[in-house]
User: Fold Fe(3+) ions import ATP-binding protein FbpC from Moraxella caprae.
Amino acid sequence: MSKLILNNLHHSFENKPLFNGLSLSVGTGEVVAIVGASGVGKTTLFNIASGLIAPSDGRVAIDGVDRTGQAGFVGYMLQKDLLLPFKRVYDNIALPLTLQNLPKSAIHDKIMPLLPAFGLDELHHKYPAQLSGGQRQRVALLRTYLSNDSLMLLDEPFSALDFVTKNQMYEWFGAFQKDKELTCLIITHDIDEAIYLADELYVLKGLPATLAHHFVIDKSSDFLQSVEYLNLKQDVLRAIQG
Ligand SMILES: Nc1ncnc2c1ncn2[C@@H]1O[C@H](COP(=O)(O)OP(=O)(O)OP(=O)(O)O)[C@@H](O)[C@H]1O
Ligand SMILES: [Mg+2]
Assistant:
């Protein structure tokens, strides 16, 4: 069954139609990447999928249930990761669970076993300002994962990172995603990131925006070293720019 279905979405800002019948489906355990130029509507699509804004028409279904305009059914890592600077790493991670009114001991039992997988077991007493960019991203990812591990929407999760850290993060997050069979929808400007992490890639473009191109990504282990990989990258780039 599809984990997420966006069906025939329509939405306008200031009478300009941004979406005029956009549909997308994400299967359980699948990673789908959306790439597209700045301002094309990627974050707005996530705001609709997460229920933060209601589309002017169309439906959002999660696990087959209509959740249009209803927040709280996905884990959503916003484009601008908002770690609270005055709270320690642990309390930043605990935030979604605290908001669910879980008892402190239950929160502790959920967080502690996950810290090593996120490379945060030595860091949970620190403040965000004491962390590197990659460590901060892992805090935000763990917080998102704890808010909802059945469907994660990640809006440019690694964009603030340098090239080397980014690559380490893909490897780590890719392995974590496979291990937990997470369903993820990822927005990124980085084609390598999309190809590395995703099973399928869509290019969002135009006004109104459509998912104009769809690529299924070969996940065999030697693909990233192949000529086909470079060809795919070129094709995606042309699809974004063309
Ligand atoms: N609340 C709003 N009111 C009016 N216009 C808006 C609002 N939110 C977004 N827009 C407009 O809708 C369009 C899409 O914005 P959106 O943030 O979804 O783009 P994006 O693809 O995520 O861009 P970026 O890659 O720069 O993050 C832009 O033209 C933006 O100015
Ligand atoms: Mg955006």
